Amino acid sequence: MAIMLLFGDQHNTFRHLFRSKCLFLLVFIVSCTPPEDPIKCSSSNTSSCTITNSYGMFPDRSVCKAAKVAYPTTEQELISVVSEATKAKRKMKVATRFSHSIPKLVCPDGEDGLLISTKYLNRVLKIDAQAMTMTVESGVTLRKVIEEAAKAGLALPYAPYWWGLTIGGLIGTGAHGSTLWSKGSSVHDYVSELKIVSPGGLENNYVKVRVLNENDQDRQDLDAAKVSLGVLGVISQVTLKLQPLFKRSIRYMTTNDSDLGDQAVSFGHQHEFADIVWYPSQRKAVYRIDDRISSNTSGNGLYDYIPFRPTSSLALSLIRTTEENQETKSDADGKCFIAKLLTSTLWTSAFGLTNNGVTFTGYPVIGYHNRLQSSGTCLDSLDDSMITSCPWDPRIKGEFFHQTTFSIGLSVVKSFIQDVQKLVSLEPKALCGIELYNGILMRYVKASRAYLGKQEDSLDFDFTYYRSKDPMTPRLYQDVLEEIEQLAVFKYGALPHWGKNRNVVFDGVIKKYKNAGKFFKVKVAYDPLGLFSSEWTDQVLSLKAEVTIDRQGCALEGLCICSQDSHCAPEKGYLCKPGKVYKHARVCAFTSSKKYM
């Protein structure tokens, strides 16, 4: 996420303010205002409710409503909740404590639905050191899994870098870390057993509880339930297969990106926890050389990733104001200048790595896996009345962004990277904006047995970029990011991250999953009335109308691909045009002559 700072108009002022404010941001702040509950209710705290995501806005900016919310504290309470709602034929959706998914996965249809929060289903139930397994309730956070496993001398080998996810949520959306080794980086591929509560018939009191095990003769149900988007029911318990706790050695290396296409194909096979951060406008790539080493090696390193730390609300407001001014003035030079200073500072500070938990003294950083694999210290500190917060907390004027995240098969990823580089050659400043959010994060992910998991060994590309508070206001270089999005999805067959993205990335996507038919078979068996489905999930799964939305300005927010000028912002000079490299793309491009409506 961005830690861009406020600057004046002169470069010397830029540099002075950048350095002084970065010193503040790089300091570990022990107090912070944790995020508020994404569910708000107007009556008795459980009825007339709304739900949002942790960023305060869905891609289409709609408000999701529900008649009630239930907070079960035990599995038996969860079973009763599902039974009663099924008997009443009420739509249901599962919500988590932090609600980090960007799309509308948590939205029930209409206003009469029921939200089932896993906020209090947050216990570690069993750790079997001999079998190296851990059984948890689905509302347990990734951070708790990592900490409790380490206390038993165990480790979840691969995980997302952000620890503010629940096990049920990250499994349901296919969240992952970065590796091509072992079973890959997706957490769901380390699930050995799963318990799920789904609607039932009169004969079983309107609820059915199933236990799915990887050793079952017929694994179809487990392969469907591992990545289910929440449409099969509520996951109540998960058993994870762990490994003995180990140490890692990490160092970063920065090079020119001229051979990035070749390196991207091979780098993930060379290092177990490899990833790449790409700064395309700077023509640079940062390679994470990260491997498992002997636990006898000395070192007590810690990774507290800087953009995930508590940040001054005042500084965040200044950052956002600066970015808004740059957008208004089309100040590409200012964005590029600040991006270079930002990335230089992150590099100098090792992105938040320290050799002893306090200071960074040089590479390699060596430490135990549990201290290096994930972070997110802005989540759970003491309340300081919004003096500091997570940078994207919607209660303050902070970061407000889109995220486009997709995976491209390693067999074609070189060509995709080269096409993006061609775009950068044509528009050298176009991607400075994403470098303000620390560039493009590239993580490795392996083909999965899960029906809605990755279909082949791939490289995942994560773009974070400015979003206007006004849905009718285009971004600077709007067309370039739209072209990259369409290039990936349509030319290279990219698969979406289920918990991120704008609507266009999901359009017709289910056709890319070879076992979609098997998934639907399980879906019908588990929830024949579609009580855990919604209009949005039906659209994503191509069971109903398209997920894209046709309305004025829809392409500006990724709700549609433009087919006419009104889908862009013609009154501001943005018209629907072909792409520059991918000619089949249709993008909102700025033209010198404005067309007034």
From TrEMBL:
<dbReference type="InterPro" id="IPR050432">
    <property type="entry name" value="FAD-linked_Oxidoreductases_BP"/>
</dbReference>
<dbReference type="InterPro" id="IPR036318">
    <property type="entry name" value="FAD-bd_PCMH-like_sf"/>
</dbReference>
<dbReference type="InterPro" id="IPR010030">
    <property type="entry name" value="GULO_Plant"/>
</dbReference>
<keyword id="KW-0274">FAD</keyword>
<dbReference type="InterPro" id="IPR007173">
    <property type="entry name" value="ALO_C"/>
</dbReference>
<feature type="signal peptide">
    <location>
        <begin position="1"/>
        <end position="32"/>
    </location>
</feature>
<dbReference type="InterPro" id="IPR016169">
    <property type="entry name" value="FAD-bd_PCMH_sub2"/>
</dbReference>
<comment type="similarity">
    <text>Belongs to the oxygen-dependent FAD-linked oxidoreductase family.</text>
</comment>
<dbReference type="GO" id="GO:0016020">
    <property type="term" value="C:membrane"/>
</dbReference>
<dbReference type="Pfam" id="PF01565">
    <property type="entry name" value="FAD_binding_4"/>
</dbReference>
<protein>
    <recommendedName>
        <fullName>L-gulonolactone oxidase</fullName>
        <ecNumber>1.1.3.8</ecNumber>
    </recommendedName>
</protein>
<comment type="pathway">
    <text>Cofactor biosynthesis; L-ascorbate biosynthesis.</text>
</comment>
<dbReference type="Pfam" id="PF04030">
    <property type="entry name" value="ALO"/>
</dbReference>
<keyword id="KW-0285">Flavoprotein</keyword>
<dbReference type="GO" id="GO:0019853">
    <property type="term" value="P:L-ascorbic acid biosynthetic process"/>
</dbReference>
<dbReference type="InterPro" id="IPR006094">
    <property type="entry name" value="Oxid_FAD_bind_N"/>
</dbReference>
<dbReference type="Pfam" id="PF22906">
    <property type="entry name" value="GULLO2-like_3rd"/>
</dbReference>
<dbReference type="InterPro" id="IPR055154">
    <property type="entry name" value="GULLO2-like_C"/>
</dbReference>
<keyword id="KW-0560">Oxidoreductase</keyword>
<dbReference type="InterPro" id="IPR016166">
    <property type="entry name" value="FAD-bd_PCMH"/>
</dbReference>
<dbReference type="GO" id="GO:0071949">
    <property type="term" value="F:FAD binding"/>
</dbReference>
<dbReference type="GO" id="GO:0050105">
    <property type="term" value="F:L-gulonolactone oxidase activity"/>
</dbReference>
<keyword id="KW-0060">Ascorbate biosynthesis</keyword>
<feature type="domain" description="FAD-binding PCMH-type">
    <location>
        <begin position="62"/>
        <end position="245"/>
    </location>
</feature>
<dbReference type="GO" id="GO:0003885">
    <property type="term" value="F:D-arabinono-1,4-lactone oxidase activity"/>
</dbReference>
<keyword id="KW-0732">Signal</keyword>
